[in-house]
Amino acid sequence: MRLLTIIIILLLLQSAEPRKGGRNKAAQRGTKGRVRGRGRASLMKRQTQECKEYTEKREKFLDCQDRQLTFVNQDWPKDIQHLLLAKNKIQVLRNNMFEQFTKLKSLDLQQNAISVIEDNAFSGLDQLTTLLLQHNRIRTASEEFLLPLRSLSYLRIFDNPWSCRCPLETLVRTLQVPSNRNLGNYAKCAEPRSMKGKKLKELEAELLCAKDNRSEVLEGPEPGPVIEKSDAVSICNLKYPGPLLNCRHKGLNRMPPEMPLDLVGIDMSNNIIKHLRPKQFLLSKELKLLNLSSNKLEKIDTAAFAGLLHLRHLDLSNNSLRYFPYGVLEDLYFLRKLNLDNNPWMCDYYIHYLVYWLKHHPAVSFTGLICSEPEEFRGWRVEDYVKTYNGECPIDKQIEDNDNGQGAHGGSENEAQQVMGEMAEGQLDLLPQPIRKKEPNEIDIIRLS
Ligand SMILES: *[C@@H]1O[C@H](CO)[C@@H](O)[C@H](O)[C@H]1NC(C)=O
Ligand SMILES: *[C@@H]1O[C@H](CO)[C@@H](O)[C@H](O)[C@H]1NC(C)=O
Ligand SMILES: *[C@@H]1O[C@H](CO)[C@@H](O)[C@H](O)[C@H]1NC(C)=O
To answer: Which InterPro entries does the UniProt entry name for this protein (predicted)?
Structure first.
């Protein structure tokens, strides 16, 4: 949702900017597209350098957008209220750089190459209400640069590679003052890794300068110790090295919110989670071990493990799983161990996906896939159950023969899918007894193609 908002804002800002074209045309479009430009466009008074000056609703604008500028020219008129400097090549905002423009109300510096803001860059601008600094290269800044801006009510700083470390603390605190609700929205940390993607508005500021040498494990050689702290971390226990999130025995009925992004292991064992919802691990790209043992798991949504490209060990033992929905394992390319023990596996049509997947991923060692229902198969290995089933099924047999030594991922799932599709269409007669007896609504919908 927020991402969408940002995209819309970006599109609006972009469309508000004049395109290149003939001089007069550009001027007209420029004024028409102005943010405040609801009224009639106005006159071009004089050419200033290569910039255009014009008046709109009695306010003076100087349009210097997209002109390869690297500095502010001392010859520019001093009485302007709006200075448009977007899409130039400014790299450093020097002390007192805008001092002469004492009437300035808005300053647009977006899409430059600004990486440094000196503390007094905006001195003298005590009437400035709007400052646009998005799409630059600013990594850090202290609150000092905001101090001269006593009227500032709107500040854009998103899409800058913010380094969320100690030097940023004062700025973060300022942005978080409740009355500053339009300052710095959407800005996010680009580093350190543990903070990446977090909003400056929502950081726990005191952690930016927290001293803790555990973070060296987290950050490697990078300086500036930072500990990841989020809800998940306060509910559970973060252990190093790793980091590993230990949430054992916490009485949780769902995954804790805001897990640190760089977790290598999550131990959720001995909780009361019943239902694993989609995409909860999407950001946990480093995760190698996920322990969901001893929960109350009955249902795993198809996209529950989406994004876990590096997961090696998944422990689902001691739950209440009867089947796996189709497709649930598709993202787990590097899975090596799967604990399935002590679940009431139901040996019917719906278990086939799991068996096919395992068959086509021979590198995965698994334990505990034993039928618990129906009674006639209780205690059977699920693979044996599927084999007896396949014995009666020529199509399955054929496919089995054709794809020995299947190493790559990709084709195999399609085949499993195909097989299941064919079974569904043509071979209901061959299904074992229990499935014909089953009530239609007993098990959730299964995706076949
Ligand atoms: C860092 O870790 C070492 C050894 O683990 C410990 O002796 C030291 O007190 C720690 N320093 C800080 C600042 O926590
Ligand atoms: C998962 O947690 C259970 C209970 O805490 C433990 O016995 C088991 O060894 C863990 N599994 C893995 C793979 O670490
Ligand atoms: C299985 O989970 C239940 C709680 O769901 C727990 O009481 C029991 O000790 C667990 N058994 C094993 C073998 O871990």
So the answer is: Cys-rich_flank_reg_C, Leu-rich_rpt, Leu-rich_rpt_typical-subtyp, LRR_dom_sf, LRR_TM_domain-containing
